[in-house]
TrEMBL record, chain A:
PROSITE patterns assigned to the protein according to its UniProt record, in alphabetical order: ABC_TM1 (PS50928)
Gene3D superfamilies documented for this protein: MetI-like
Membrane topology: Multi-pass membrane protein
Taxonomic path: Bacteria, Bacillati, Bacillota, Bacilli, Bacillales
InterPro entries (UniProt xref): MetI-like, MetI-like_sf
Gene Ontology CC, one term: plasma membrane
Source superkingdom: Bacteria
Cell compartment(s), UniProt: Cell membrane; Membrane
Family: Belongs to the binding-protein-dependent transport system permease family.
Main location: membrane
Positions of the ABC transmembrane type-1 domain: 89-305
Designated name of the protein: Putative aldouronate transport system permease protein
TrEMBL record, chain B:
Domain of life of the source: Bacteria
Pfam families on file: BPD_transp_1
Protein name: Putative aldouronate transport system permease protein
PROSITE patterns in the cross-refs: ABC_TM1
GO cellular component: plasma membrane
Entry membrane topology: Multi-pass membrane protein
GO BP field: transmembrane transport
Residues covered by the ABC transmembrane type-1 domain: 81-291
This protein's record includes keyword Nucleus: no
Membrane spanning residue stretches: 16-38, 76-104, 116-135, 147-168, 189-211, 270-291
PANTHER family: ABC TRANSPORTER PERMEASE PROTEIN MG189-RELATED-RELATED, POLYGALACTURONAN_RHAMNOGALACTURONAN TRANSPORT SYSTEM PERMEASE PROTEIN YTCP
Record family assignment: Belongs to the binding-protein-dependent transport system permease family.
Organism phylogeny: Bacteria, Bacillati, Bacillota, Bacilli, Bacillales
TrEMBL record, chain C:
InterPro entries: Bact_solute-bd_prot1, SBP
Alphabetical list of PROSITE patterns matching this protein: PROKAR_LIPOPROTEIN
Residue intervals passing through the bilayer: none
Listed PANTHER family: ARABINOSE-BINDING PROTEIN-RELATED, DIACETYLCHITOBIOSE BINDING PROTEIN DASA
UniProt keywords, alphabetically: Signal
Name of the protein described by the UniProt record: Putative aldouronate transport system substrate-binding protein
Length: 318, 306, 549
């Protein structure tokens, strides 16, 4: 390895001479390798955006897009004026935020812990098993969760036998538990899956760094703090920025399946709202208006997060 | 290989304590994540009506393979399995290759279009033109009713692209520069140097793409639902699930003669769903160890010679 | 080196695979276009038929299907719904990719997109059987523009069939223990449940649940509409209709109906008679509780808990199965539980503009509606699939019943699809039922000794006889099938949301004052909606149906 690096450094010195023509040629090669994909993404992702016109129309199924009645901002007005709108946004933001924090902390934590395991077999088994819940559909997962949280379910039995609580608690009937139940169940289902990406990033850390640290007498925690975490900081920041853009995507399936009549004020997300008042009633225009609203918020947050990362001298998206 | 196995033979007390805590914690996680898997497996092999009364068990109480035989009763599912394998292979290989290539160009700091292209891709994560315009696009591109509709629309995902780009940016810049001086083209640098060095991230992204491909049924629903030759495994499984739902709902057609006999050969959505989960997950578990070695054991830069 | 070869290998395999698959897809289009090559299909006219109900793949060949194909010279290629109905309708209409024939409850959307052809002239000229069956309902079949676009599955004919769905249900064991009392009011029902609960606080080692309520998601109508039956209304919607005076009463905020019911439930809850978990469990947990045998009673529609009945039977707990009761608030109210025989108008079988030969299509549908066609579709072949007694009654012998108890055999025989054609329900001229599962002999065959004992105690031979017949004045029935404007669809959704939240709070309220508080909040919230606008639209449309039908 060290040999390679030295050779590379030598070459780097030689390279200092600017050569315009080679740079241009180099740009051309890069363009050949990337512009076809630019065309691709414009066709497959941007062309369908003409569908956004629907949000300003009273779209009728089967009609030609431009022939529909134009209604201006009526669909947006209806969205913002709905008395449930604020509540739904509050729930979405709260659950997204909890998921974001819990999700990041838990999966990075798991990756760090797995990285510290000495027995390869144990490491492999834990890693494989911990990502399996990702493959359960939320329908299956929600049933399990509801059984575990029921009056005679495992959680109540455990807490009662440990004398932490006296009476079994109906977890799903308490409004203020709901967000946390969503957060916890999300961690349980996705922790192993999300950790994969960090494990992959850790493989790029130069082992000689650990070696050197050990010789200096650094403990495990110091090595984690000063070598492992900085080694994966780039990917953490990138994922964080991208996820901040998804803050309004708290989903609907998980909440829909776990909600009970007792907690509806805290469980409905914007996606559930759009599903009920848009798609299920075939009101495509209303659903599209909600989609545009979400996109606008996403893009604003994304740009802000990216700017902040830039200011703090961190890795950034663009 | 792993970062901590070498070193001194004796461990300090703090080190030992750390290992114990770590192991205990991971064991708890193991139990918590193993439970749903075993439960699903048990339900899938348990008689449906028996599951209805209580579904919290880890070993089949009334063993049956009926849930599985219901899934595999018509021969179409084997062909669908083949299509699913094909789309997963082809879709993953092409997507990973294209994503990596594009990610490489975007990882080049000197590339003038680096910013704009990144920008344009990243935004696609946050909007959608909606179901109907996308459907019309696929029709107009004549991808409707073909196999390629499984491969092309999902060729490059923005998320995967950015992860790959970020990984490649972390590779030593000097490797590329020295190769350039040796007269290598960007394409051969990508192929010979960057691709082999990126195996951990490639394995990760390949896993993400493959799982997405394998589990996808919505594109079959939209574009190939009438074309039985291109039906996928997940789509056929979905049919079985909805069919089970329907017979519980009780249309006239499924209201079988009331019989005093126990109807042991009826399935319920819950039991079918369990069997489907198992059928859909097993191939992924089988393939996983082959990918896993790339990001658990890890590769070191030093091991690769240009 | 190994990496490089691996890469080459993968690339090679991918290429080979893509060629196979590519070849496969072109091949498939070839066979689809040239299907006539194999067998004598040259004379067979082929129609594609999309059925908007999920189900198993329809086998290429089925026993009855092949017989019909031979008789008619027409082949049907069926496709069934997978996934979300709304999405499928959306893309089908957007792309104009209609099959030749469709069967859907979304007919209005297809009409709006001009995707369907009017059927009335085709029927007059080519379909005498359909005309005979649907003739009595001709006006009702017409869409807003005066054309007929869809034929509902079955038109009532002969003696109407009584079918119990919505009811207050009670465990057989509870009735037996109480000595088979006559129960007609809700209060009596609660008293019987309470008495049994006091006597047996536990069943099979678990706490007895005297009354259970299903409140999960949209299934919560078992809580929020049960009171209409107690007040003498039918299985309608959120209004009780007086068909004679043509008046609709919104009962959801009515103190004498809805409040009365919730107040009673509130008392029961405080008394411990209602499952504590009634408002935190999902559908599968509900079924599990019913299947455990410790639930004594509930209000529900039978199709929602059939799975639990199957499970009880399988566990050998037939005595814990449920029996339907028609209850009212008091004896002065006439119960109205059974549905008026009706069709889902403006839904069902349609021919699209893509069908090349509509005449052949309607002729085929007419064969399916003929006596011969219907017998084949519903009963099968005499002597093989069913038996005819000396007196001419149809039934299945035990062997035949066991055969059809296995869903696989049903699939082999009919493909589980032949129901989706125009036809009749009710009785034929000879008194047999058109539908096998409605034949009294077939229903009675499902009864065990306990059923027989129970029925004998009440002096009847079937459970249906325990119920009063439907009120035939309700020509408009059912209210929920009336297509509303978008504004009032939103009203319904909003009311559903309110109903999801408040009634559970009322039931579990700490005391009578709290109950009162939640009730007032509920009423205030509901009254913010445009109830009158909703009532007006329905009143007009009900009046229209009552006059023209």
């Amino acid at each position: 390895m060290s040999v390679t690096v030295e050779r590379v450094k030598e070459h780097a010195k030689i390279k200092k001479r600017p050569r315009k023509w080679s740079k241009l040629r180099s740009q051309k090669a890069l363009m050949v390798m990337s512009i076809p994909f630019l065309v691709y993404v414009i066709i497959f992702a941007y062309v369908p955006l003409y569908g956004w016109m629907m949000a300003f129309q009273n779209y009728k199924l089967g009609s030609v897009m431009l022939e529909n009645e134009w209604v201006g901002l009526a669909n947006f007005k209806e969205l913002f004026q709905d008395e449930n709108f604020i509540r739904v946004i509050r729930n979405t933001l709260a659950m997204s935020f909890i998921n974001l924090v819990f999700g990041f902390v838990s999966s990075i934590g798991l990756a760090l812990m797995l990285n510290e395991v000495r027995k390869v077999m144990f490491k492999r088994v834990v890693q494989t098993v911990s990502y399996l819940p990702h493959f359960l559909s939320w329908v299956v997962a929600a049933n399990l969760i509801m059984n575990v949280l029921s009056i005679d379910g495992a959680v109540n039995k455990l807490l009662v036998s440990l004398h932490i609580i006296k009476e079994p608690i109906m977890w799903l009937s308490e409004q203020h538990y709901f967000w946390w139940i969503i957060g916890a169940s999300n961690v349980w289902k996705e922790i192993g899956w999300s950790a994969i990406i960090y494990l992959a990033a850790m493989t790029t850390i130069d082992p000689s760094l650990y070696e050197a640290a050990s010789i200096d007498g650094a403990g495990r925690f110091r090595k984690i703090r000063h070598i492992t975490l900085p080694g994966i900081r780039g990917i953490i920041v990138i994922l964080l920025i991208m996820n901040i853009g998804h803050i309004l995507d708290a989903g609907f399936e998980q909440q829909y399946l776990l909600q009970t009549p007792m907690v509806v004020d805290y469980s409905e997300t914007i996606d559930i709202f759009v599903l009920k008042y848009g798609i299920n009633l075939s009101r495509f225009s209303f659903a599209t208006a909600a989609g545009i609203f979400k996109t606008v918020i996403s893009v604003v947050l994304l740009l802000a997060a990216n700017r902040m990362a830039k200011r703090m001298g961190q890795e950034r998206l663009f | 290989m792993t970062t901590t196995t070498f070193g001194r033979p004796k461990r300090s007390a703090a080190d030992l304590l750390f290992d114990i805590c770590n192991t205990v914690f991971l064991l708890v996680l193991l139990v918590l994540t193993l439970y749903p898997v075993l439960n699903t497996l048990a339900v899938s092999f348990n008689q449906a009506q028996d599951t209805v009364r209580d579904s919290t068990f880890l070993w089949p109480r009334e063993f049956t393979t009926l849930n599985y035989s219901t899934l595999f009763q018509d021969g179409l599912i084997y062909h669908a399995f083949f299509i699913s394998v094909a789309r997963t292979l082809l879709g993953t290989v092409s997507s990973v290759f294209c994503t990596a290539m594009l990610a490489y160009t975007l990882s080049r700091k000197e590339y003038v279009l680096r910013g704009p292209i990144s920008f344009i891709f990243i935004f696609t994560m946050y909007f959608s033109g909606g179901l109907i315009p996308t459907y019309m696009l696929i029709k107009n591109l004549h991808l409707y009713g073909t196999f390629w509709v499984y491969v092309i629309p999902g060729l490059i995902g923005a998320f995967n692209l950015i992860v790959m780009r970020s990984f490649m940016e972390g590779l030593p810049e000097s490797l590329v520069e020295s190769a350039q001086i040796d007269g290598a083209t960007h394409f051969s640098i990508f192929l010979r140097i960057i691709l082999p060095l990126s195996l951990p991230v490639i394995a990760t992204i390949a896993l993400f793409v493959a799982v997405g491909q394998w589990n996808s049924w919505f594109d079959t629903f939209l574009y190939n639902s009438s074309n039985i030759n291109l039906s996928t495994l997940q789509y056929e499984l979905m049919k079985k699930l909805q069919s089970a739902n329907m017979s519980v709902g009780g249309t006239a057609e499924s209201a079988f003669a009331s019989s005093k006999n126990i109807q042991a050969n009826i399935v319920t959505p819950a039991s079918i769903r369990a069997a489907i989960t198992v059928v859909a997950t097993v191939p992924i578990i089988v393939v996983y160890p082959f990918l896993q070695k790339y990001f658990v054991t890890g590769l070191t830069l030093g091991g690769v010679k240009e | 080196m190994s990496k490089k070869t691996a890469l080459t290998w993968i690339a090679g395999a991918t290429l080979a695979l893509s060629m196979i698959v590519g070849g496969c897809s072109t091949e498939s289009t070839n066979t689809a276009a040239g299907a006539s090559k194999n067998n004598s299909a040259e004379e067979l006219t082929t129609f594609s038929y999309f059925v908007f109900d999920p189900g198993d793949n329809v086998p290429e060949h089925t026993k009855i299907g092949d017989m019909i194909e031979q008789k008619t010279g027409v082949k049907i290629k069926y496709e069934r719904l997978v996934g979300e109905k709304e999405q499928k309708v959306g893309v089908m209409i957007a792309g104009g990719d209609y099959p030749d024939l469709i069967n859907t409850d979304q007919t209005v959307k297809f009409e709006d997109a001009n995707a369907l052809i009017p059927l009335e002239d085709l029927i007059e000229q080519h379909a005498p059987n359909i005309k005979r069956i649907y003739g009595p309902y001709w006006e009702r079949l017409k869409a807003a523009d005066g054309h007929i676009y869809a034929l509902p599955q079955v038109a009532p004919t002969g003696t109407p069939i009584k079918g119990i769905s919505a009811a207050f249900w009670i465990q057989k064991e509870v009735l037996k223990d109480a000595g088979y009392p006559k129960i007609t009011t809700f209060d009596q029902y609660v008293d019987v449940l309470r008495a049994y609960y006091k006597k047996y606080p536990q069943i099979d080692g678990a706490d007895t649940i005297p009354f259970e309520i299903l409140t999960y998601d949209n299934r919560n109508f078992t809580l929020t509409t049960a009171m209409q039956f107690l007040a003498g209304g039918p299985n309608d919607s959120r209004a009780i209709v007086d068909p004679v005076a043509n008046k609709l009463a919104f009962y959801q905020t009515d103190e004498n109906v809805t409040k009365r019911y919730y107040a009673k439930l509130h008392e029961m809850y405080r008394e411990g008679m209602i499952d504590k978990e009634a408002f935190v469990m999902n559908y599968e947990q509900y079924l599990a509780k019913l299947s455990s045998g410790r639930v004594l009673g509930m209000f529900d529609q039978k199709w929602q808990f059939q799975t639990a009945l199957d499970s009880l039977k399988q566990q050998g707990k037939a005595n814990r199965m449920f029996v339907p009761l028609q209850l009212t608030f008091d004896d002065s109210i006439q119960p109205d539980y059974l549905d008026v025989p009706s069709m889902n108008y403006n839904m069902g079988f349609s021919i699209t503009i893509n069908a090349k030969d509509p005449v052949a299509a309607i002729k085929y549908a007419d064969y399916m509606a003929s006596e011969e066609g219907q017998l084949l579709r519903n009963w099968g072949v005499a002597g093989e699939d069913y038996t005819v007694s000396d007196t001419g009654r149809f039934y299945r012998n035990q062997e035949q019943r066991d055969f059809f108890a296995d869903p696989k055999n049903g699939l082999k025989t009919t493909g589980n699809i032949l129901w989706y054609w125009p036809g009749s329900s009710g009785t034929m001229a000879d008194g047999n039922s058109y539908q096998q599962y409605q034949q009294p002999e077939e229903i009675a065959a499902g009864y065990d000794e306990m059923d027989l004992e129970l029925l004998k105690a009440y002096g009847v031979t079937t459970y249906e006889e325990l119920f009063d017949g439907p009120n035939l004045d309700r020509k408009y029935f059912p209210l929920w099938s009336i297509e509303l404007t978008e504004k009032n669809k939103v009203f319904n959704q909003k009311l559903n949301d309110i109903n999801k939240k408040y009634p559970p709070q009322m039931v579990v309220a700490k005391n009578a004052d709290d109950f009162e508080k939640y009730w007032n909040e509920y009423v205030a919230t509901v009254e913010k909606l445009d109830i009158q606008g909703w009532l007006d639209e329905l009143t007009t449309k009900v009046k229209d149906r009552q006059e023209n039908w």
